[in-house]
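Archive maintenance. Older records in this collection stored only the sequence; we are now back-filling the structure field for every entry so that each record is complete. The fields below show one back-filled record exactly as it appears after the update. Entries are processed alphabetically, and Signal recognition particle subunit SRP72 is next in the queue.

ARCHIVE ENTRY
Title: Signal recognition particle subunit SRP72
Organism field: Oxylabes madagascariensis
Length field: 678
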Amino acid sequence: KMAAAAGAAAAAGLWSEVNRCGQNGDFARALKSVNKILQINKDDVTALQCKVVCLIQNGNFKEALGVINTHTKVLTSDVIAFEKAYCEYRLNRIESALKTIQSASQQTDKLKELYGQVLYRLERYDDCLAAYRDLIRNSQDEYEEERKTNLSAVVAAQSTWEKVVPEDLGLREATYELCYNSACALIGQGKLNEAMKKLQKAEELCRQSLSEDSDVTEEDIEAELAIIHGQMAYIMQLQGRTEDALQLYNQIIKLKPTDVGLLAVIANNIITINKDQNVFDSKKKVKLTNAEGVEHKLSKKQLQAIEFNKALLAMYTNQADQCRKLSASLQSQSPEHLLPVLIQAAQLCREKQHAKAVGLLQDFADQHPANAAEIKLTMAQLKIAQGSVTKACMILRSIEELQHKPGMVSALVTMYSHEEDIDSAIEVFTQAIQWYQQYQASQTRGANPKSPVHLSLIREAANFKLKHGRKKEAISDLEELWKQNPKDVHTLAQLISAYSLVDPEKAKVLSKHLPSSDTMSLKVDVDALENSHGATYVRKKAGKLTGDNQQKEQGQGEVKKKKKKKKGKLPKNYDPKVTPDPERWLPMRERSYYRGRKKGKKKDQVGKGTQGSTTTGSSELDASRTASSPPTSPRPGSGAAVSATSNVIPPRHQKPAGAPATKKKQQQKKKKGAKGGW
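Back-filled structure field:
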């Protein structure tokens, strides 16, 4: 008895220790006390519950779940349902968490909150929306703002991933989280400018709320703003402002945020901007998308988009095996999805296996008729690239749901015209017009009004037939158009022109419907026309003409303006009294008075000393004595220098007589250079 009493006293002391540690938030110490209690009584339900709570608070979810599963007889689902479901949720066992919640006998408020979170992770947005609405309606506590934030997040997810137009929940966007979620919903609707304004407001609210806390640094604020800035960059990318988006993306990466989901999305978006350029940077960014835990942070569509881009990057980097492996894996996960098979076809085309690529696409189109249209468009493009335009036309015409579309009709007619197959082009027009006739009849219960698209097709068909000389075939189309609009003079004129070859009498009858010349005459006020701005300008221009010119203009109707000849420039030393040399245009050697160069003259006057010296008796080389007559060009090798202050005319301005000497100098230089190994 004394031992039992001592044990009870010890247990009481331990329980008070557990209570005190729990209130202080010291769950590690509380866990030690709980374990001591369990040593006294291993099946104590309260102690086991406290142990599970302490482990959860310390982040040991796996160990906590192990305790629950070990003591299933004591810890029944009624007692520990929330804790078990929460551990499974935090361990990313979402399906198990859902089963645990649904199997609980009593749905407490805590379980309902967790239920909403589980539904969001499972992307069951409609059920999640209903769960949060019920919680907000039936709860009144300090967590109401968080519930509204979660509700707006569900609406944003619906708008983004399911393209559902969100309803106005009437939430007051007083926090930056609510503003951010509202911006995401607007992005899903394509309202990018409005979304950007919401994000700017969210950034402002975030700065205001965080700056009120003195312990928060600027780095902490920037880290919190990273997700807002990432969404801003995404809007810029969608708007085509790729340089601005790329700059903002890189700024966020430099901050090294702890959110692996945010980093993965930003890295993926940078890869999409790079495309087949800057491949080295893309390879580095791919590593961020492979970080641990990314698969639990992103939606299925986000993860799928990342995998698609990995396959495309492998193709751009010529990793053919890796590309095939990734695309095959994606196709097995989503057999009905278009992108994996398109990536495989693109890889085959890069390997010049066009026929195999077309066969792959054809197999997919046969297996998935719902997606056959887009696949066949790709097949047609491949055929055009190979030069098989007729086969491409056959593939396009096999897409029944697009045969009547104006864009398809235009493409087929253009391609057939290129191949000079006018009959097939006309057949395309006929089939499209018949489709619209049947559709209009089914919609209007036998009435036959023509839609604008229908009339436009008839008009194009008629013009095409007239252009290619098929006037007989154009008559029915023109009659239909004229019937719809009897006041259309242009159509009537075309119809008369077409009938003139087939039935001239009919053409005459129809010509009576043409407006008379009286109704077509234009009532023009000549005076007003002459006094208009344009006429005044012409009159002023005409007023500058002389009387003779005006007479010529009246007599000849048109006067050509004579071009004035510019006076040629005369040389500075031109003397009008002296007759210029008639042979001045000929080279000196070809002139009649050229006698050749006299050799041997002035031989004794050449300097015998050092380079640059002259003989003292050479009066002819003294420029000061014969200043009026310019000196001849210096001979090669003479080394004569002209000072900067001299008024001697440079060699290029002297008489051509010195030209042979210069030529000789050039030849000597050339010869000298030849020895140098040129």
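Update note: The radius of gyration is 47 Å. DSSP finds 32 helices and no strands in the chain.
Entry marked complete.
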